[in-house]
Amino acid sequence: MSEQSIKQLSVFIENKSGRVSEVTGILGDAGVNIRGFSVSDTAEFGILRLVVDRPDEAANALKAASFTVREDDVICIDLPDVPGGLAGVLKLVASAGVNIEYVYSLIATYVVINVADVERAIHLLADKPVRLVSQAEIAAAKA
Q: For residue 4, which of 61, 67, 59, 78 has the smallest C-alpha distance?
């Protein structure tokens, strides 16, 4: 691993209710803080990609719970918070002929959750210690 790369964990999970919650619970119990994540799925399985504060401890805890975990070196960039900031960096990399396989963001406490029933999920979260973020707040947010 280069000093300028970071470790990403890819956890392979069945595409069924509760699996992402199970992984994040294992990490929480192990004292591992999630700094960023991405979930991609197919009909039968998913890949939960994670950047955490202690990747070795996270990988060990997940493997001990019988999850398949792959570790990869990735890069993390602190983008300028201006229109076109991301586009400029991606164009620089792509124009050099380096394939960009995927991109996701880190650190921010805003998390997007795609659910089958948005209205029901909003109702379920209404009396919980969670604050829903509006489109206006997204527009006004600073990185």
A: 78
DSSP run (H or E) holding 120: helix 118-125
pLDDT of 95 reads 75
The C-alpha atoms of residue 129 and residue 101 are separated, in whole angstroms, by 35
φ/ψ region of 78 (left if φ > 0, alpha if ψ in -120 to 50, else beta) reads beta
Residue 97 pLDDT > 60: yes
Res. 138: pLDDT tops 80: no
**Count of residues making up the chain:** 143
DSSP 56-107: HHHHHHHHHTT-EEEEEEE------SSTTHHHHHHHHHHHTT--------BS
Please give the pLDDT value at position 24.
95
Element (H, E) at 52: strand 45-52
Map out the domains of the chain with their CATH numbers: 6-140 (3.30.2130.10)
